[in-house]
Amino acid sequence: MTCRVFIVLFFVLLAGCKNASADKEPNPKSSGADVPHDDEPEHEGLAKRVRLSPRALSASKIRTAPATTEVLSATVTLPGEIVADPDRSARVSTPIAGRLTDVRFKEGSKVTKGQALGTVRIPELGKVRGALAAANAKATAARTNADRLSTLADKGLAAKQEALSAKADADALDAETSALREQLAALGGPAGNNGELVIRAPVSGVVVARDAVIGQPVTTEQTIAMIADLDEAWFLGRVFEKDLGRLNLGARAEVELNAYPKEHFEGTIEYLGKQIDPAARTVTARIRLTNRADILRIGLFGSARVSVDEDAKRTPALVIPRSALTEIGGKSVVFVRHADDDFELHEVVLGDAALGKVEIVSGLREGEQIVTEGVFTLKSAVLKGSLKEDD
């Protein structure tokens, strides 16, 4: 009996040890711990080399230039903002007080010179038109009478004095008619019988501001629209006194705007102000810019790098054109073309920047052929390849 009890106790203890051991083993399905995927390869980084098909290579119009060691142009940085060219913009107002009866434009609308923007009802305009019609009728009758008397006087059938008086009256009415016609033209030209004046665009461009509502009374001092032709615009940079002597008219400039840090606009200094701002102690430098891609906006802030003649004081550095740079994965990179038409991705460390060029601190060697045009095509190929790998 004692032996049986001992055997039963032995097997009970043995089962308990197995259960405890099983509880200690982790369950990969129920555990929150990361389980390695032995059957899944590690994700690779971006491709370091790109090769295009002959057709894609031809279509991409890739151009290269060697990385060279040279002296970057010395520059002066000028803070400033974009403004409209006054000769390519206009403030629209009514030449005489009245009430708006029609508005035919919106903010952002493109308009052409002479296009009707709206109508203003002007009671006084009807009076001027009526006075002109009356004066014109009187002048016509007076001229006919003067001609008749002049003919009779030549035949001795009328007094010469009477003919002269009739001619003087006709001349006076002609002068009155001419004055009323000029007055009507000054008010905006002929109007209908209801006394409405059509307001027209004085220049072609884009409506950048509108203050016009149907039924709104308007005065001659009020601007109902502002139109600007922004195909070209000005960057007005602020030149501090200490830098004024370093700048010259015609100096090359490169403008970078806060809103578009990756875009650069080239121009030249076409005017340096003749008066110092007494508060800021600066002079205005005017740089004309072409509105590439229609992204310039009035009031955008930025800075201009302006070239100055001080290259002798700077040391040579490895530089590349700015157009060769792009960004992938938050890093600055360039593409190097090899003899077999492979393109290798190089991560670079940037240094100083000048007009259209950037210093390379590391990541390139002098003489390597850097892609300067067609960078977007190669960048797209790299990103497309990385997406396929992730799939």
TrEMBL record:
<feature type="domain" description="CusB-like beta-barrel">
    <location>
        <begin position="234"/>
        <end position="307"/>
    </location>
</feature>
<dbReference type="InterPro" id="IPR051909">
    <property type="entry name" value="MFP_Cation_Efflux"/>
</dbReference>
<protein>
    <submittedName>
        <fullName>Cobalt/zinc/cadmium efflux RND transporter, membrane fusion protein, CzcB family</fullName>
    </submittedName>
</protein>
<dbReference type="InterPro" id="IPR006143">
    <property type="entry name" value="RND_pump_MFP"/>
</dbReference>
<dbReference type="GO" id="GO:0022857">
    <property type="term" value="F:transmembrane transporter activity"/>
</dbReference>
<dbReference type="GO" id="GO:0060003">
    <property type="term" value="P:copper ion export"/>
</dbReference>
<dbReference type="GO" id="GO:0046686">
    <property type="term" value="P:response to cadmium ion"/>
</dbReference>
<dbReference type="GO" id="GO:0016020">
    <property type="term" value="C:membrane"/>
</dbReference>
<feature type="compositionally biased region" description="Basic and acidic residues">
    <location>
        <begin position="35"/>
        <end position="47"/>
    </location>
</feature>
<keyword id="KW-0813">Transport</keyword>
<keyword id="KW-0862">Zinc</keyword>
<dbReference type="GO" id="GO:0046914">
    <property type="term" value="F:transition metal ion binding"/>
</dbReference>
<dbReference type="GO" id="GO:0030288">
    <property type="term" value="C:outer membrane-bounded periplasmic space"/>
</dbReference>
<dbReference type="InterPro" id="IPR058792">
    <property type="entry name" value="Beta-barrel_RND_2"/>
</dbReference>
<feature type="signal peptide">
    <location>
        <begin position="1"/>
        <end position="22"/>
    </location>
</feature>
<comment type="function">
    <text>CzcA and CzcB together would act in zinc efflux nearly as effectively as the complete czc efflux system (CzcABC). The CzcB protein is thought to funnel zinc cations to the CzcA transport protein.</text>
</comment>
<dbReference type="Pfam" id="PF25954">
    <property type="entry name" value="Beta-barrel_RND_2"/>
</dbReference>
<keyword id="KW-0105">Cadmium resistance</keyword>
<dbReference type="GO" id="GO:0015679">
    <property type="term" value="P:plasma membrane copper ion transport"/>
</dbReference>
<feature type="region of interest" description="Disordered">
    <location>
        <begin position="21"/>
        <end position="47"/>
    </location>
</feature>
<comment type="similarity">
    <text>Belongs to the membrane fusion protein (MFP) (TC 8.A.1) family.</text>
</comment>
<keyword id="KW-0732">Signal</keyword>
<feature type="domain" description="CzcB-like C-terminal circularly permuted SH3-like">
    <location>
        <begin position="319"/>
        <end position="379"/>
    </location>
</feature>
<dbReference type="Pfam" id="PF25975">
    <property type="entry name" value="CzcB_C"/>
</dbReference>
<dbReference type="InterPro" id="IPR058649">
    <property type="entry name" value="CzcB_C"/>
</dbReference>
